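Um, can you check?
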Amino acid sequence: MEEFYEHLEDEIRCTKDGDVLMVIGDFNNKIGRDKSGFEDIMGRFGVGDRNERGERMLEFCQRNQLSVTNTYFYHREQHRYTWTHPNGIHKNCIDYILINKRWRTSVRGTKVMRGADFNSDHELLLSNIQIKFKIIGREKQRTARYNLEKLKNNDIRENFKIRTENRFEALLQEENDQEILWSKGRDIIKEEEGLVLGKERKIKQQWITEEILDLCNETREAKKRKNTSPTQENIANHRSLRTKVKQKCREAKENWIDAQCRTCEDSFKRGQTKQLFTSIKNITREWKHITSVVRNGNNEKTSEIEQVQKIWKTHFQNILGGNTDRMNLEEYPELQTNNPEILQTPAILLEEIEWGNKITCK
């Protein structure tokens, strides 16, 4: 028996950790109902009493993290017996289905199928297992986006054309197979795009140019040098770069707006309505602060900040009936919130709210 379990353990060691390990067969032993000391590997629905062979099998299961599935599911007594003596009187459970503890919850049921018709004193033991594997998501291959705006520059466009033509001429002299030509030609274009054009930068504002992005990178590096070594030279260099970035941003934005306006004029003259409204939307899409508009005592609208402030001051003076300037509450103990007279002050009247709404216009 010891040799059998040693050989079985050698086979178990050859399996991978993530595999669903099952040991099925006739072990010719009785593990009984008592699960004391083996609560982690067997349930409470065993059969009969445990013998020495059953003790040895449970120790083997405990050492190799195997669960006895026969004992985890309730069935009638006759559906737990896996073996019947030829005399038809003595019955017991000596066949088992073992599974590693990691996958024990995948077992939906284990029972004896007494209706199976075959010539044996053992019954058919059936285990229903439902395994749900983890879905491993594939990493999405991000297609590199190259800065095609650089092709508007004549020098860069000519350089890119010459480099690709030279490499294609060399490729045509080496290869004749169409599939290889297609594959290598595609790689040549991608390599030259990366070398000449570079990857596309994410730009939130359309008027930002490559020169401004480069200046921002220089400013960022200058700030790191200033924080590491705060000398007068590093501080002055960082300040000058910041000023230069602001200046370039103003110039680029003005030039971009002028270009959009010219595009609107050209689109209007040519009758290109879609392009016209697209250009207008690009210019006017930015959020603008909405100034509050109120009515004065003469029922006239005004949006000037000073006039609005005076109107609101007058409004609250009329409601509160006094001076609205800041006051020190410690000098007026009768205004403290713990004063019962203040707590009994009536709430704002509905007429006051309606009057305030009348002078406000949004």
